[in-house]
């Protein structure tokens, strides 16, 4: 059955493509954050272990919201490691970095997700896709706040 939600098919395809990149970034950041949760050591262990758990839990919920928005637009959501590797702007961590390096990588990852979310806004606004715009606004706000919180751990 054809989709008739007031957004043209071509616009839905462009938005879904952008959201696929956002999904890949979010899932890659989820995986990296979970990895760091498991492997963090040092004097900030407890603080970071708990903080990373909060962050990866939120990210795990976010991937579902993003994927379901893609499906609502009539497209299939990417869902494999190979898809995510092609679509994500976030690279895997190599080895097990020290805690401060973990924080720096997670700040960079949070900011990458913000940039990806922002890049989708023009297509969503042009199409009058308020649902996607709302999702993007929420993602941007959360990731900017998380990046700030992580950055604050790096200050003297």
UniProtKB/TrEMBL annotation:
It holds the Pfam family Ferritin. It comes from Uliginosibacterium sediminicola. Residues 17-156 form the Ferritin/DPS domain. InterPro entries: DPS_DNA-bd, DPS_DNA-bd_CS, Ferritin-like, Ferritin-like_SF, Ferritin_DPS_dom. This is Dps family protein. Belongs to the Dps family.
């Amino acid at each position: 059955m054809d989709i008739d939600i007031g957004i043209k098919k071509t616009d839905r395809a462009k938005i879904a493509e952008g959201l696929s990149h956002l999904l890949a970034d979010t899932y890659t950041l989820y995986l990296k954050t979970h990895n760091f949760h498991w492997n963090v050591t040092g004097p900030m262990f407890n603080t970071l272990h708990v903080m990373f758990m909060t962050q990866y839990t939120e990210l795990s919920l976010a991937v579902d919201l993003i994927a379901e928005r893609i499906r609502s637009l009539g497209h299939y959501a990417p869902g494999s490691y190979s898809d995510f590797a092609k679509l994500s702007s976030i690279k895997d961590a190599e080895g097990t970095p020290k805690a401060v390096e973990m924080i720096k990588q997670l700040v960079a990852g949070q900011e990458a997700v913000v940039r990806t979310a922002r890049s989708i806004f023009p297509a969503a606004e042009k199409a009058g896709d308020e649902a996607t715009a709302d999702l993007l606004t929420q993602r941007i706000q959360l990731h900017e706040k998380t990046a700030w919180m992580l950055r604050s751990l790096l200050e003297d």
